[in-house]
Amino acid sequence: MIFRQVEADDLYTIIDLEYQNFDFPYPPEIINFLYESYRNTFLVVEKDRDIIGFVIGITQKKEGHILVIAVRDDFKRKGIGTVLMKKLINVYEKNGITRLKLEVRESNVAAISMYRKLGFKINNKLKHYYEDGEDGLLLRRG
Questions:
Q1: What is the mean pLDDT of the chain?
Q2: CB neighbours (10 Å) of residue 70?
Q3: Which NCBIfam families match (predicted)?
C-alpha cells in the first residue's frame, strides 16, 4: 500500500468513495475546492494503483480540522483508517500544528474508538449536527 498526497487524477475515485461512504457526502465542487486549497493535508492510500481510502484535513487558526476520512468497504476494519490518520497527524506536526479537532456521528462507535486510540478526547456534544438530525461529537487532540 502507498500513502501519498492527492493528485488530480484521484478526484473522480475520491468523489465516488465519498458517495459510497456517506448519506450526505460533500459535493464534487467542495472536494475540488479542498484539493485546490489543502493538497498538503489531503492524503490517499492506494493498493495496486487503486485508491482505497482518503483523509482530508484543513487548517484554521493554527488548528488542524479533519473533515472526512473514508475507506473502501472491502478494506474496512484492517487498520487503514488508523494509518491514514497517523500520516495526517504527522503532516500537521511537521508543520507545527499539534491541536486537532474533528466531528463524528455519535452512533459511529468504530470511528470513535479509533480516534480515542489516536489520542482524541470527546470535547462537546453537538445537538442535531448532521443533516438527518443525528447528534455529533466534537473530539480534540493536543
A1: 95
A2: 21
A3: rimI
> Which positions of the chain have pLDDT values less than 70?
none
Domains of the chain, by residue range, sit at 2-141
pLDDT at residue 65, rounded to an integer: 97
How far are the Cα atoms of 10, 121, 124 from residue 42, in angstroms, in the given order?
11, 23, 26
CA-wise closest residue to 68 among 6, 2, 1 = 6
Rounded to whole angstroms, the Cα distance separating 32 from 60 reads: 18
Nearest to 101 by CA among 49, 45, 141, 58: 141
Structural class in CATH, domain 2-141: alpha beta
